[in-house]
Amino acid sequence: MKKQYLETGKITGTHGIKGMTRVQVWADDNEFLANFKTVYTDNEGKNKLEIVRVQPHGTVALVAFKGINTVEQAEKLRGTVIYINRDDADLPEGRYFISDLLGCSVFDADSCELLGKITDVSETGANDVWHITKDGKEYLVPAIDEVIVSVDVENEKAVIRPMKGIFDED
């Protein structure tokens, strides 16, 4: 079952004296949060924070929230994981939330063999890497166009054409 509220970052500190926060964004880029007016501090959407401004700043985003006007107020948010409502997100074709990939069955495009399930995704900078597990063994597969044939998160299925040697038994 897909989660309605998705973890998207963590408030790691403050910036300046007027209530700005430093947010480690768990997305492809630090500008991702600029697409949202509201984020949540729980995975049920009960506690919301309204975004006033998002500014990319190195490896983090500086985020101003409505009603957070002092460094002391911002400091109280340190360590808070923030969530988005998936209904507020507009992902381009071929892009997926990592949480939606987890648990997908992965099949070989040529043999139709079940290769395992996606149990984790590592973000390396150059490309994501899928951790595919089968019978207690983990295989690392680069999530690149040359390997990924199709992804159907609705049916929890991915089809790949693995690079030589990844699934070969020694």
How would you characterize this protein structure?
With about 170 residues, the protein is mainly β. The chain has two domains: about 5-85, Elongation Factor Tu (Ef-tu), domain 3 (Beta Barrel), CATH 2.40.30; about 100-160, PRC-barrel domain (SH3 type barrels). It is about 5% helix and about 45% strand. It has two helices and twelve strands. The protein has helices at about 70-75, 100; strands at about 5-15, 20-25, 40, 50-55, 60-65, 80-85, 105-110, 115-125, 130-135, 135-140, 150, 155-160. The strands form two sheets. A six-stranded antiparallel beta sheet has the order 3-4-5-2-1-6. A six-stranded mixed beta sheet has the order 10-9-8-7-12-11, with no helix packed on it. The protein is elongated, with a radius of gyration of 19 Å. It starts with a strand and ends in a 10-residue tail after the last strand.
The coarse overall form would be elongated
User: What's the helical proportion of residues?
Assistant: under 10%
Return the domain count: 2
Q: How many β-strands, per DSSP? A: 12
Poorly predicted residue ranges: none
- Amount of beta strand: over 45%
Lateral strand order in the biggest sheet: 3-4-5-2-1-6
CATH superfamily of the largest domain: RimM
Largest sheet: 6 strands, antiparallel
CATH architecture of the largest domain: Beta Barrel
Mean pLDDT score = 91
CATH class of the largest domain: Mainly Beta
Rounded to the nearest angstrom, the radius of gyration is: 19 Å
